[in-house]
Structure formats: structure tokens, C-alpha cells
């Protein structure tokens, strides 16, 4: 039996929990997760940032851990992957400027493969132009971008997920249990509780 493979897009200052928790949880469930970053190769590390909600008007940011990439971005073959995971943090701000990243997202969308994005990860989906007439959520500050990209921003509690067909989205890392459950369900996994 072939182990399903998933692609995870990362970059420097990706949100720490939003890259590490899904990476580890999806592996625990038996998926092979290829974590990639443009311009880097397997074994390279990206810096992470820890975002927290401490009562300020927005999240705070602190240095996170190093996260080791497991595959080469240059070697991506979309046909090899059952789904795509896009964590948030500051990495999406610059990853969305890379035409190759946007093409990867467009190919996943064209194949109707499960797409999971959390927090600022939606910035990559807006830049790729794949949210037209789609409903999704994100960190609230990304709501205007979703609307401008032709999507409909849905405001939900920070610990919940929103599903629109193959698109699974969440506002921030407190939603890990919810969006991971929905994502693996969309992938066809059945988890017995």
C-alpha cells in the first residue's frame, strides 16, 4: 500500500505552531509530508515565528524554532500529492510573490485536490486567484484580501474551521483540531474515536 503524500509550503518566519503541529500530526496519521520552500532544499531550515494572542489589538510575535525542510521545491510533481497545506505567519507575504508558488497552488486547485490554509496562508490563495466565488476564513486582517480576490470571507471563532468543498481554512493555530479533522476527512481518512 502506498502512503499518501502531502505538500506543505513553508518559508522563513512561517508561524511556528502552524507549520510544526500539522507536519507532525499528519505524519502521525500515516501521511508522508514533503515540506518545501522556494530556493531551499531538503535539510535546509527555515526560521519560524511564534504568534500569540495576549490581549493586544493584534497578535504578538516572538522568535520561534528552526524547522527543517524535507523535500526540494524544485522537484515538486503535483501528481505525487493528495493535498496541499499552507501555514500562515509572515512567510505567505513573500511566498505569494513567487510565480512558481502560485502555479503550484493553481495546479492543486485545477485538480480539485484538498487545499488547507490557515491564518495568513490565505494570502497565497488570494494571489494565486483561486478564491473566486469561494467561501473561506483566515486571520481577520486577511478578510479584505479575500473579498478583493472574489471570495467571501467568513468570520468564525479562532478555534474553528470552515469548509467549502475541497477548501479547508481556519483563522489561526487554536483551530488545529478542527481544520486538521476536516482536512483529513476531505483526504478520505476515517478516524475512529
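-> sequence recovered:
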Amino acid at each position: 500500500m502506498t502512503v499518501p503524500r502531502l505538500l506543505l509550503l513553508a518559508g522563513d518566519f512561517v508561524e511556528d505552531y502552524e507549520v510544526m503541529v500539522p507536519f507532525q500530526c499528519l505524519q502521525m496519521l500515516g501521511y508522508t509530508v514533503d515540506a518545501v520552500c522556494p530556493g531551499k532544499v531538503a535539510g535546509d531550515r527555515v526560521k519560524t515565528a511564534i504568534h500569540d494572542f495576549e490581549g493586544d489589538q493584534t497578535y504578538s510575535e516572538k522568535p520561534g524554532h528552526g524547522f527543517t525542510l524535507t523535500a526540494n521545491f524544485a522537484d515538486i510533481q503535483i501528481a505525487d500529492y493528495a493535498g496541499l497545506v499552507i501555514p500562515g505567519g509572515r512567510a505567505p507575504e513573500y511566498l505569494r510573490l513567487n510565480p512558481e508558488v502560485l502555479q503550484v497552488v493553481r495546479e492543486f486547485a485545477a485538480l480539485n485536490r484538498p487545499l488547507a490554509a490557515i491564518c495568513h496562508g490565505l494570502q497565497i490563495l488570494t494571489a494565486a486567484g483561486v478564491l473566486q466565488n469561494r467561501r473561506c476564513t483566515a486571520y481577520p486582517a486577511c478578510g479584505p484580501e479575500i473579498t478583493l480576490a472574489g471570495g467571501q470571507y467568513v468570520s468564525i471563532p479562532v478555534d474553528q474551521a470552515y469548509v467549502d468543498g475541497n477548501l479547508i481554512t481556519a483563522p489561526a493555530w487554536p483551530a488545529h483540531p478542527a481544520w486538521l479533522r476536516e482536512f483529513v476527512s476531505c483526504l478520505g481518512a476515517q478516524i475512529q474515536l
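The chain has one domain: 5-186.
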